[in-house]
Specification:
Length: about 140
Amino acid sequence: MAKRVLVLNGPNLNMLGIREPQTYGSQTLADIEKACIADGKAVGLTVECRQSNIEGELVTWIQQAIGKFDALVLNPGAYSHTSIAIHDAIRAVGLPVIEVHLSNIHAREAFRHHSYVSPVALGVICGLGASGYKLALHALAEKL
Ligand code: CA2
């Protein structure tokens, strides 16, 4: 059976392509999600995509991934820098998570340099724009 991957995007990522293209690129979230489904299919993965602006909803989806998904690709948005709840949820489910950021968080403001997600992630990709999601899916296809 094809391995199943949940691609989760956090707060404000529904604004992609509408504002700040110089930082986050010109693709919309719908474009990125469509590409994730196609890129996943090309490497034998079944991909489902969701986005939420609500921390608790992301936590619930991470918890509910047990038994339904084999791995996650997660762009936690600004919750990367604040959320112990998302850190704890990833630890609790024990599924492999690849953290993706469109921008290079280390080349930006100091408050973006720390991520609570990175220590519990299998890997971290940042600064490569929407290609980061494709790279994460390719890595999962090899690892799963
Ligand atoms: O680079 C990334 O992918 C981020 O996760 C994006 C977050 C930011 O808080 C992280 O530090 C890095 C912000 C997403 C906001 O997305 C927008 C898109 C278009 C217009 C405004 C915001």
